[in-house]
Amino acid sequence: MMYQCLIKKDIQRDLSTEVIGKKIVVYKEVDSTNRKAIELAEKGEDEGTVIISETQSKGRGRLGRSWLSPLGVGIYLSIILRPKIPPKESFLIVFLTGIAVIESIKKVTSLSPTLKWPNDILVNDKKIGGILIEMKSKKDKIDYLVDGIGVNVNTDTSLFPKEIQEKSTSLKKVIGKDIDRNRLIKKILYFFEKWYLEYMNKGKDKILREYHKYANITGRLVRVNELKRSIEGTVIGINENGLLLLKVNNKIEKISSGDITFIDK
Asked: What is the model's pTM?
C-alpha cells in the first residue's frame, strides 16, 4: 500500500512557532511516541521537541488501553513540555490540546469535531482522535510532561476489531478523500503553541471557555463507567478543576475520571 510519508522539512516549513516543533524527530516505527519522548525527556531534552512516528507497535491510550497505529495513515506524535504549573492542573494540557486538534481539523477540512470529556476528539459522536499525557513530577512541580496525540487521518477503520469499528472513524472516511498529514501536523503544532502560551501567560479561564464550547455535552444523558461503578445522569457542566458534573437523582456527582457513553439518542 502506498502512502504519503511524513517529512520533517515539510512540517517545519513556514511553521510560525517559537518553541513547539523547532526540533522534530520522525521515526518509521517506535513502540510508543510517548515512551520515546519520556526517554528523551529523562535525558534533558528541551521543551517543545516533537516525536512523530509512521506507526507504533505498542501505541498507548488512556487507562492502559492500546492505540491502534496503522502504518502511514494516522498521526501519532508526542510533545515534550516542561510547564511551570502544579501537577493538579495538568488536565488543562489535555483540554487545550483538544482545542488545538479541533481547530487544526477545522482549518484543513470542512468538519467541525467535538470533544468528549476528558480526552477524546469526535466526529458525528465517533472517536477520531485521543490525547494521553504522562508526566514526572514532585509534590508541586512538574519535571516534564509528555503530551501524546493520536488522530485517525487516512485510516481504514474497517480493519479495526469490530468493537472498535463501531465507535471510531477517520477523517478520510468522513470526507471521502486523503488528507495531507504533514499539513495537519503543522496546524496542530501551531494551534497547540497558541493555546499553550495562552495558558502559561494568561491563565486557564479562556481554555475552560473554549473547552466548554467544543465539548457541547451539557444537558446530555450519559453513562459513566468508572473503575468500580457505572453511573447514569445528565451532564450539567465541567468545573474549573476539570471534573465532570453529573446530575443523578437530584444530586450532583463530581466525576474525576471514567468513560462516557451517550445514551440520549
From this structure: 0.93
